[in-house]
Write a structure and sequence with these properties.
Length: about 70
């Protein structure tokens, strides 16, 4: 999720392609909102990872790289 858009992506793709997401997903998921809990927000029952301040065009390019054909 950026300031303006939400992107639905496969959770398995992000940690495979990025150590930052791999480390982020290694933390336990908490259901109740707490300070610093990046998974407090949900959309349609799925966790939301906020990318506040990131430009949508940059996120689109990043996701294109993650979903590159093998």
């Amino acid at each position: 999720k950026t300031d303006s858009y939400m992107f639905r992506v496969h959770k398995s793709i992000l940690p495979r392609e990025s150590t930052v997401f791999k480390d982020m997903f290694a933390f336990p998921v908490k259901e109740s909102p707490t300070e610093g809990n990046v998974f407090a927000d949900k959309y349609e029952g799925l966790p939301v990872v906020p990318l506040i301040g990131d430009d949508e065009k940059d996120v689109i390019q990043l996701l294109k790289m993650f979903y590159k054909p093998t």
